[in-house]
Write a structure and sequence with these properties.
single chain, alpha+beta, L,D-transpeptidase catalytic domain-like, nine-stranded mixed β-sheet, 17% helix, globular, disordered N terminus
């Protein structure tokens, strides 16, 4: 019997920009043949908003919004201009347990323990991640410590960087508006790295940190309250994600990290490999030209690039489609 993903969005809107975001949860039942969740939405810009205000108030970061809203000015959107909310996602290829953090997507997926009726939820938040040279590591670890109003003990390497820039740091930065950790911090098993808040929320959706993971202040407060100690954390590198919904194959492409250019540039190999893994010996068609266009111009939205075929019914192939049986 075919398993189905049921997605239910619980949306809570706060009209005070930008202090509260949409809180969106997705309730998942089964994950075999449907791994695409949510729906794309639009809002109308107000002359008082920046694009970053709109991003924050709806649960997105800078990169999310700029990739798809290329005609919208970051600081001065036109009053009444339509703004796309990229609120449709492909779930990352990773166990649905604890925290899954996809660095190039700059997004965190939290899978809390299953509730009644053995149903699985996923909550998702935008991130700021490590800049080049201070990369966020790809590791499997866990939350080992939680602190409210943490002090920051900048390591020697960061203090040296600030000294060279003429902005020296103290050995200890106490809680307050100058503390880049914000009001909440969760330490990973690799103890140099934290998931924490920020005193610079406009940096969410950017490569801006020294390797730690930053969330909006309201998001880290919410996540902090949900996540117990020893929650697993899986940090992954998936600029391209493949998902399925109603037998349609989708590709979601994000810009790969600059240091991964040799791996991902103009390379469909990883995409074909992912499709083969999810095909489970079923025949499928892929429009390679559409897939190639998606990775050439990544916009962070799931794009239909193929389909699984009904083996009982012959399908016509157009010139761009390839059909493979694994």
């Amino acid at each position: 019997m075919k398993k189905i993903v049921t997605v239910i969005s619980f949306i809570f809107l706060c009209f005070s920009i930008p202090t509260k975001a949409y809180a969106v949860r997705y309730l998942i039942e089964g994950t075999i043949d449907n791994t695409v969740i949510g729906e794309i939405k639009t809002v109308t810009a107000d002359e008082r908003d920046t694009l970053l205000d709109i991003a924050r108030s709806h649960g997105f970061g800078y990169q999310d919004m700029k990739l798809i809203n290329t005609e919208v000015d970051t600081w001065l959107p036109v009053d009444g201009q339509e703004v796309i909310l990229p609120s449709k996602f492909i779930l990352p290829v990773a166990p649905m347990k604890g925290i899954v953090l996809n660095v190039p997507e700059m997004r965190l997926y939290y899978y809390p323990p299953k509730g009644k009726n053995d149903l699985q939820e996923v909550h998702t938040y935008p991130l700021g991640v490590g800049r080049e040279g201070w990369n966020t590591p790809y590791i499997k670890t866990m939350i080992v410590e939680k602190k409210i109003k943490p002090s920051w003990h900048p390591p020697k390497s960061i203090r040296k960087e600030h000294e060279e820039a003429g902005d020296p740091l103290p050995k200890i930065v106490k809680p307050g508006p100058d503390n880049p950790l914000g009001s909440y911090a969760m330490r990973l098993g690799r103890r140099d790295y934290l998931i924490h808040g920020t005193n610079k929320p406009y940096g969410i959706g950017m490569r801006i940190s020294h390797g730690c993971i930053r969330l909006y202040p309201e998001d880290i407060e919410e996540l902090f309250s949900k996540v117990p100690l020893e929650t697993p954390v899986n940090i992954i590198n998936q600029p391209y994600k493949i998902g399925v919904k109603d037998n349609v194959i989708y590709l979601e492409a994000h810009p790969f990290l600059d240091e991964d250019k040799e791996i991902y540039e103009n390379n469909l190999t990883s995409i074909i490999s992912m499709i083969i893994k999810i095909s489970k010996e079923r025949e499928y068609q892929i429009d390679m030209s559409t897939a190639y266009e998606a990775i050439q111009n990544p916009n962070g939205l799931p794009v239909p690039v193929g389909m699984f075929l009904n083996s009982q019914k012959k399908k016509e192939h157009n010139k761009n489609l390839i059909s493979i049986v694994e």
